[in-house]
Amino acid sequence: MRTISFLFLSGFIFLAVFVQAQSKQYSILIKGGHVIDAKNNINELMDVAIQSGKIAAIAKNIDPSLATQIVDAKGMYVTPGLIDLHAHVFAGTDDRGLSGGFSALAPDPYTFRSGVTTVVDCGGAGWQSFDRFKKNIIDHSRTRVLSFLNIVGDGMRGNPYEQDINDMDAKKAAEKALANKDIVVGFKLAHFAAASWVPVERVVEAGKLADMPVIIDFGGDNTHAPLSIEKLFTQYLRPGDIYTHVYTELVQRDPVVDLNTRQLKPFLIPAQKRGIIFDVGFGGGSFNFNQAIPSIKAGFLPNTMGTDLHTGSMNGAMKDQLNVLSIFLSMGMDIQGVISRSTWAPAQAIKRPELGNLSVGSGADVAILTVRNGNFAFKDISGNRNEGKQRFECEMTIRNGRIVYDLNAIASTSAQNK
Amino acid sequence: MKKFSILIIVLLFLATFTNAQGKLYNTLIKGGRVIDAKNNINALMDVAIKDGKIAKVAQNIDAAQAEQVVNAKGMYVTPGLIDIHAHVFWGIQPNSYLSNGDVGVTADGFSFRSGVTTMVDCGGPGYKSFDTFKRNIIDKSQTRILAFLNIVGEGMRGGDYEQDVSDMDVQLAAKAALDNKEHVVGFKLAHFTNPDWTPVERIVAAGKLADMPVIIDFGGGKLPIEDLFFKYLRPGDIYTHVFTELERRDPIVDLKSRQLRPFVIPAQKRGIIFDVGFGGGSFNFNQAIPAIKAGFLPELMGTDLHTGSMNGSMKDQLNVLSIHLAMGMSLQSVIERSTWRPAQAIKRTELGHLSEGAIADIAILSMRQGKFGFRDIAMNRQEGTQKLECEMTIKGGKIMYDLNAIASNVKK
What we know:
By secondary structure, chain A is α/β, with parallel strands linked by helices. Chain A contains twelve helices and 16 strands. In chain A, strands 1, 2, 3, 4, 5, 14, 15 and 16 form an eight-stranded mixed sheet that branches. Chain A has a seven-stranded parallel sheet with strand order 6-8-9-10-11-12-13. Chain B is an alpha/beta fold.
């Protein structure tokens, strides 16, 4: 009897002390939101609990007394932190365009206010400038910054640098990528003007050497007929390679929608089935309703929703990641469709399946979004207008378990729940 | 008969002339409510723009006279906002804080989406770094960038640099300011931590030499602000971070009685100008709410924008205005304090209003109704039912931002 009471008592004391020392089981509990997690096939009301920077639990009705801080997400969507597959964040103060120059933007001002927790810089740095990119931007950013390494050694420095085939060294690019596998997720080719397939061959060679995907901006200029995208998709790219600026309508570029018939060309859906990944890459000059609307009507949806963020797009028709998603809502895509294309789909495209989902144990990168109802309108890059009834707004962004943006103070202060 | 033919010729000439000229206006903003404090306008008015200037402000201007029409029904049309307190000297120089370092932000990424057309960098560059600031920031920005030059030669580089009284050179600062009068509007003192009046004396001396105002962030010396306002500053000088409640700073609201201290309104009457300078650590409801209740309103709504405030309680200029609406200030009042009053404070009276002939810097804003929440830097929460949203920003007659595509396409 004495032994039993001793055991009971000491067990009880131990538990009390343990609970006290642990204080709460969760650091943050997001209550009452509608979770969209494409990887785990969740699209319903769920609570999400975070502890030590990781997703600790996803379930209905998690007890708020278990959490230090409560976030009231009633009426909101709770999604994995968005991944912008196509951004230009290699900012700098040299006249180097998107490669350490004024056209690029340091990421943190543009990401968290738009629900984005990961950006992939799309070819700003080449193997020669990557170390500077890492030192100046990646290491100073709270946003997770990944990189498509430019096949041009000097990166996206503008002309004539980006036209220099001699600076497209597949081996050196692959070496740099493999030496920085924690950051580099693939290779970029962009802005090449002449009618030559050599740059495409070089970037794919680098991709093969490093076992990484490539992403193609199919350049061109007005001095020659555009290179055939059908040929690109069927003869040059591998399944898993990415074609960006998919809805561009420019004279120098072979479009996905035929300019005469205004029908989607017949080889696009087969190319997508073959595994070519199509990215929006909206930018300052790369998104036309005349291409996007017929494509979507024909069942050809983009795989990823890259913004092509830079100084030339941030205040124009593009604006930010959520504006891009809202534009696709206005063209008839659904909320789950655009969220999965900016979370789980890009995570898979860059072979980072640890990102873009809310599985228990994964890093707690979370976006909390509202869909506003009203009369909104959007423009494409040629000034065409499309009206919509919905617009996304970022209520909160959590990066690595920390609240990094809270628009309407929906988080309780920690003290209130202790 | 001859006279008649001449009349016909004149008429033909006029018709041809009008045709060649195209439309009378480039852009016409129709149906909005204009708030223009300088001209005492708070009424439904159309605003016409030609060649980068305000051409006409009147009721019912004919839409056929404009190449492009902006539908501003239900919106407010105001002068482009002036953020008197921003930190835009972004750079990649290591350990350089707000002077060519990565704590500053890119101006254009925050200005136009928030209705702002002019930003005054608040002490980023000193006389030694102004040329770099001009080359990297002023010349590369679409936003109009002005500057309070730091009294410290090295500028706002943080740490020991800003404590170095020997780098506070009155003559060199005043000379750099006068050499760059087009961009420099005054001087800044900030972050000085010792209980020593010398830096204040130096900066006011520079202000006198250049005939420009100074703006004071009152560091950490715990010196009495009453002395600052009455013994050191001149009428027209600016005190920023006015609603801060920090251990190291003398507050305007007494910490025990929670009453506005008796000398603050007299200081304002004397001509001391008070700026919000919200920032990452400089705005407390515990100071602001009692102060406003006691009838003390800030003259200026500076954001203190930098990477430490952009995603925090501050966010952007319109969020700062909305917070002041939540505390009971009127729309007209917060707009005046971010347009005409800052223009006067920096002696740029060509800015901050919509007089005919003025530069066509314009913000078009919507007032959202709903339930909104705001925070101060101590995480206290304030609810509000209104929030300003930027629909369009026009700088020098050019549309820089159009949230909901309210501008028609151009018809010549």
